[in-house]
Every structure is written in structure tokens, then in C-alpha cells.
Amino acid sequence: MFFFAIEDSDLWLSAQFSLALMPVTIGTTYTFSYTLMPNYLYRRKYFLFGLYSFYALVISASLIIFSAFYGYLLSVGLEWEGSYPVSKGLTFIFFAVYLVIAFGCSLSLTKSYFKTLNKNEELKNTLLENELQLKIQELQYLKMQIHPHFLFNTLNTIYGLALTKKDSAPGMILKLADLLDYILYETNKNKVPLHREIQHLKDYIELENLRFGNRLIAEISIADFSTDIEIPPMLFLPFLENSFKHGKSAEGILNIKWKLEIIEDQLLFLLKNSVPARKEILDQNSGIGLENIQKRLKYIYGEAYGLEVITTKKSYSVLLKIPINF
After folding, report:
1. 3-state class of 326 per DSSP?
2. What value, to the nearest 5°, has the Cα angle with vertex 235 and ends 175 and 231?
């Protein structure tokens, strides 16, 4: 109606003629929007879409000519009067009608695009949520694997002390009770205070010291840090556990150096132990605990952590760097 009334002052005449073209305009628009585009264009059946679009345009063009002629008779009767709107020509009428059809189809296409975009986003969020749940479950499983592995080694030590009826056995059981308390009530959390984790490691070293006695030389260097720093629980224990399991020197003495410091926004954990032979070094790279901790680090920090293993003929070292504000 807007296009037809540009050069004519009779709006009622323009409205009548536009109404005569409405059925073919609506029919063609809906044919494209709800049949041709969903069934062929969106499904990438481009040949069929082009073929049926050609048929639709031919049929609609015929109906436009019929509607324009009928609209002219309806609006001005049989009197020509050299007037509007057929006098503008069929080309102009085709342009006006197909412009409205194109506008309607573009709205339908835009709506379909955003609907598909929202559906893909919802699907992506669902997949991410499922993946997150799987990772959480796997992390819990990995923690559960660490606990029995740690308990197995410790109970073996207590069993050995009980067989020899050593006086250190009761003290070792008390230390184990403290460690079990930490495991039961702290490791279910996503993060624990760093000072609690450090105390847990110290208790473990004292526990092993009861077993090794004079055959253990442990050097501990811990820098000052804020009490607000938190890290995932049981993160360092597998490294320390492997040191006691595989580490010793040719003289039967186990030397362990543990260093913990904060540089800028990173926490540096360095653990070094003596080894008797190359074979032992290779064996120390294996084991359930170490494998699990590498998976946990990957899940928690992604690529934001650094793990370096250094082996020599006499020592085995692990350097772990993790962000403290992650």
C-alpha cells in the first residue's frame, strides 16, 4: 500500500488494490517460509530448493497478474481513466509484491537462525554440564584410589612394627589416626587451606620416620605464605609417597629434600629423593598415585600447571608449579 500510494492521493484505492494482492503475497511467503526453506534449504537440498522455488515463482507470478487485474476491476470498475495503479506497470507491481515476500522470508530465516543458534547453545551447555559431571565423578574416583593406596602402605608398615614389637607402633597408629581424620573430613572438599595440606605432609613424614628411623634424612624448607591460600587436597601426597616407596641410596639411607615456596602467583613444590639405580628411577615414574595426580592436575588446572621430572644417576626430582589464584 505504501508503494502504490507514493504518487496517488487516493489511499482507499491503494488499500483496495493492496488487499487484492494480499492472498498471493501471504500464500507465497508462507510457502517459502514453512515448506521450501525448512524442507530443502535448511537441509542443504539446494537443487530441489531451486527447482521448487522456480515453480513457486511461476505460479505466484501468474496469480499476481490475475490478482492485479481483479484488484483493478474491484477498485475502479470498468472505467480506465488513465489512472492508478495498473498504469504503473506489472513490473512495479511484481517488485512491490516480491519485496514484501522477500522481507517476510528474511524474517522467517532470521528467526530460524536464532532458534537454531539457541538450540545449539543449549546442546553445548548440556554437553559441557555432562562433561563436567563426568570429570567430577572421575576426580572423586581418583581420590578414592589414592586413599586405599596410601593406607595399604601405611598399614604394611604398622604390621611390620607390630611383628617386631617395637615401641614406636602406638605412636605410628596415633599419627595414622590423624591422617585418616584429614582424609575423611577434608578431601571431600574442592579446596583446603595450604597450611592444612602442609601439616598433613609433615604428619606423613613423621609417620615414615618412625619406620625408617636413622635411615631417613629429611630436609624441609617452607617459605612464609598467607593463610588464605587454598589448594586441592591430597595434591602433593602421591609424590611424597613415591619418594618413600622407591627412594633410597646405595648405603640404604633415604635422603629427601622438600621445598615449598611462592613466586609471584605460583606455588612451587620441589621434592627430591635419592635412588640407588637407574631401574629404580624408571619405576618411580609409574604407579597408581602418580598417574592419578597427573590426571587430577589436568582436570583441575588444564594447561595452567607445570610438572617437571628430573632424573639423574643418584636422584629423582619433581618440580610442580600451580597457580594459587585459579
Report:
1. coil
2. 105
Work out whether strand 254-263 and strand 230-231 pair parallel, antiparallel, or are unpaired: unpaired
- 141-167 residue pLDDT tens: 555 555 565 677 677 777 777 777 777
CATH code of the domain made up of 167-323 = 3.30.565.10
Determine what percent of the chain falls in helix, strand and coil, rounding each to the nearest 5: 65, 15, 20
Which residue has cell 629434600? 257
The gap between the terminal CA atoms of the chain, to the nearest Å, is: 62
Cis peptide before 85 (omega within 30 of 0): yes
Output the pTM of the full model. Answer: 0.53
In the predicted model, residues of the chain with pLDDT beneath 50 are 78, 80, 82, 84, 86-87, 279-284
CB 59 within 8 A of CB 36: no
pLDDT tens digit string along 58-94?
A: 999 888 888 777 666 665 554 545 454 544 567 788 8
Q: Which residue has the cell 504503473?
A: 88
